[in-house]
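Batch manifest line 343
LIGAND: ribose-5-phosphate
JOB: complex structure
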Amino acid sequence: MRGAMSSAVIPSGEAALRIDTGKRLMLVSGRANPALAGRIADKLGVELTPVTTKTFANGEVYCRYEESVRGADVFIVQPMCGNPEQGLTANDALMELLVMVDAAVGGSAHRVIAVSPWYGYSRQDKKSAPREPISARLVAHMLEAAGIDRLLTMDLHAGQIQGFFQKPCDHMTAMFILTQYFADLGLDDLVVVAPDAGRVKLNKRFAAKMGADLAILNKERPAQQVAEINYVIGDVRGKTAVIVDDIIGTAGTLKAAADAVMDAGASRIYAAATHGLFSGDAFTNLDAAGFEQVVVTDTVPLRQGAPENIKVLSCADLLTSSIRQIFTDGSVSDVFGGENQLF
Ligand code: R5P
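JOB STATUS: finished
ARTIFACT:
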């Protein structure tokens, strides 16, 4: 089936007039993570709407929907990450999302929803030095200027990024996918470790869910993309440590965290994060860190050459349930029993 139809009952004696509009759900994918879009399409029971996307010789991106989107709720699956296999940089992915939104608005879609589980530029959410941009806000402005009706995203680096939007922002979390995975591993003597102050709240919830102890690391960034960890707050000696972060970029944070936790006497170490960007020297850093496993989700496609101890869990079920709820005007918080506004 291409797209999904909804039908509504027309009751009598209600204050609101309900009309069966037979509205359509269309799911489309940019080039950033077509595999994730395919998984969502399978679970929704729809085919992806055909769309031509390309990069011209001068680097500009282009798109065209191959069938009418008029009157449809168009869900555009496009995390703002690069995809080397598609020749796409993170900035290309963002621009491609913007042109796809523009084309859907221009094609008279009823609603346009950006499904971007990875929100690019999310770490530039404030000025850390004079004369810096607040790029996460700029991205929000660009999406709204292009014409999105709402954003469906996951584990924003800071929940406050939602405040950069005038339009609704549905903020999912992969925390329960990750805690379930670790619960199924049945590890004993567990301590959950926050790699920096920014992740303490997440790790506190993670530890509570796992019935584990909590430890906190003191991370400094002497320069951009350089992580130093000086000491461990809490007891990790003889324990299995799970270091939980939102993002793995260069894995400099995880490497420093692994060293600190092992120096403090942990018996073995695991890592978990929602977004596995694995940029720069990430794979080398992870190899050197000695993790039993590094667990991430598929918000971002796994780069080629990944070490075998990287485990990818899919967040397609979660996004599919959220898309269903958005399409039917149901409650997105219900997908989590109200526990999605965690951070
Ligand atoms: C920082 O505040 C984030 O939560 C992550 O710890 C950071 O972005 C990871 O980056 P990298 O892997 O490059 O150290």
